[in-house]
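Quick one: Diacylglycerol O-acyltransferase from Ficus carica, structure tokens please.
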Amino acid sequence: MEMKYESEELQKMKLSPAARLFQSPRFNCHIVSLIGCTTSIDPDVIKHGLTHTLLKHPRFSSKLVVDDNKFWRRRRWVRTSVNLNDHVFAPTLDSKIDDPDQFVQDYISHLTTTPLDLSRPPWELHVLNLKTSDSESLGIFRIHHSVGDGASLMSLLLACTRRTSDPDALPTLPAPIKPPTPPPDEGGFAARFLRFLAAIWSAIVMIWNTVVDVTVFGATILFLSDTKTPIKGPPGVERSTKRFAHRSQNEKDVGRNKKTNYLPKKIRLNSTILVNLRPTVGIQALADMMAKNSKAKWGNLLGYLLLPFNIALQDDPLDYVRQAKAIMDRKKHSYEAPCTYFCARLLQKVVGDELTAATARRAISNTTLAFSNMIGPLEEVSFYGHQIAYLAPSVYGHPHALTIHFQSYVDKMTIVLAVDPNVISDPQCLFDDFEESLKLIREAVVKQGLNKETV
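--- reply ---
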């Protein structure tokens, strides 16, 4: 199957600043997303569906072209013909593979060692009709990060799906909860004056938080590095082979760990979080774009923020949750992410893409891990008629030995780990620790809830 365009005058699009950074050899990032299905996958059906949806999206039918001259190098997206046989792969597999889960991990790990062919649109879909512990088959999307950010790509993927219960309906995502806004005249003059003072104080706190966060971010670039711990990757970790693992439900009955404190004192451990700075592109808008050639904003519009982890042994498991929520509430009341984005834009204009990418890489290298979460649909969905069992996205190419993603789907949460096996040899041990921690937190919530009811 091949998608062609009418004339040689192909549409040309500039790369966004973030996309140019992701194209830098020092910051060459890729997105990997697993789609587990409850039935075997028909590759021909998938190709037919992609022809009528994904290939109508400009970014998935464009290749990168580099213009060089004596003074500058410029990269552009150029629309091109797409042969799906160059992008969709369905290898013939032995149904008697001893350990299908390990085979899938090895398969994805091998993908991280092979670069995408940039002479065509930088994406691939691998179809593996292999029964694993949590699916009958799976598809593996590999997409260069310059194509789009995680929020846009997840929205686009969901725009290609339909509800299993209603094949004509798009999936729905949880609506954000907004606090009610009181009417302007409610409470009289005194109440309005208090709200005015609260708004001034909120602005002062916002400015203060932003100044502190941007200063710490700058110090992290220059000299403030995380403590060297067993999970911090060595220099050059971005070039090492990565392994991906996920867990969607309780698979083992994990026993209680003894509360013995072996933690060293004064650990500095930070996570890097990429923040989507534009409102997430709606699923309906992307579906209309592919079906009706309408316009929707696309690309990478990302800022960074640093999320400090408090490494300590607490008596109450909920103290971890309270501390994490307090940190995130403060981060939400700061312009750290927009400031890092605009500083990167300014740096690109002054010193160019390569030095800006080196600066971003240094900031990430001085932290320990990357952390992200994505919201999935509220109901079960099907990908071109194939019911989805789970979604598991991740990323590789950045200088971290550990990346953690949380992905929701219906009433289930999938945790995805991308690890350097030379640093973290057994990610299943981490899963066991996460699962045990979540159990302890849940039990503490139930226990404290019962105590409140009895009071």
